[in-house]
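Why does residue order matter? Because the sequence determines the fold. Keep that principle in mind as you read this record.
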Amino acid sequence: MDYIDNAAAIRKGEELDTARMEEFIKDSIPGLNGPLQINQFPKGHSNLTYLLTMGDREFVLRRPPFGRKAKSAHDMSREYRILKALRPVYKYCPEPFVYSEDETVMGCPFYIMQRIRGVILRRDFPANLTLAPSQVKELYQKVLRIQYELHTIDYCSIGLENLGKPYGYVKRQVTGWCERYRAAKTPDAPDAEKVMAWLEEHMPPDTNKPGIIHNDFKLDNIVLDESDPLNVVGVLDWEMATIGDPLMDLGSSLAYWVQKDDHPDLLAIRMMPTNADGAPTREELVKLYCELAGIETGGFDFYYCFGLFRLAVIAQQIYYRYYHGQTKDERFKMMIIGVHVLERAACRIAETK
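Structure:
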């Protein structure tokens, strides 16, 4: 099926030493035979993700990007530890196999995990994957419930009590993302000071129900069963997971959720089919989440505005690398457009609330 997420040729400058990797993987994972083939998944914008194939076995390798990296970002050992702890209690996690800091292999820490094969939705549904509006609604509500399920896991019981600091989380996030934006700002980036001031003035108190939050829970990190696309079989990209306020996680997810009646500039940068017939609105998703959690639905503007700003910062950090010649990936050239669009969307909330 051509709507399966497939790897492609490795981008120039991001090649791996195939011979050295073949030696490493055969030493680390028993029972492998045949030559190693390495390809690259082309869609990610942060950590680099490769497909390793040996005989009939497929694995995914994750490593940090080349070029400038945020001080605390791209921690491969942390990401591996999260998967190790979560896999037994959250079936959507890929199974991690091996982690290495041996710089003789590729010059940086990395880990290898299970490949979860399936459908990953991008900007639009593939032409040969047709869902009725009722099925779209069912799928998207199911994805939200799976996110809520993550938030309710007893993180202390699986040894992740030190993964993050839930108290003071909102304040640290607002302060930290403001600092990151100012550090990554380029001359062609928006000022964003109005948004940052609004967020600082409207921070809610700490939640009394902190949980494991994914921090990048969106449709193109969700893997669907290729034989039944209404069945979710995996959740990918755990690099930003931590312990914190689940509503911050939901706000970050909804920053990606562009619906039919949104401003035209948001529709222009839409990344996923969240405007499809039958797709719930952000308001409907917030209502469903609050019903599941048994909480009131008011005051969600802060979380959505923060999600938009945070996404703008991520885009700006990626663009910073391209602007300063630290990556040759041409996809990053247009990131600055998204930064402006997201900053304007966040400003509209700040100006009307």
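The first strand starts at residue 36 and ends at 40.
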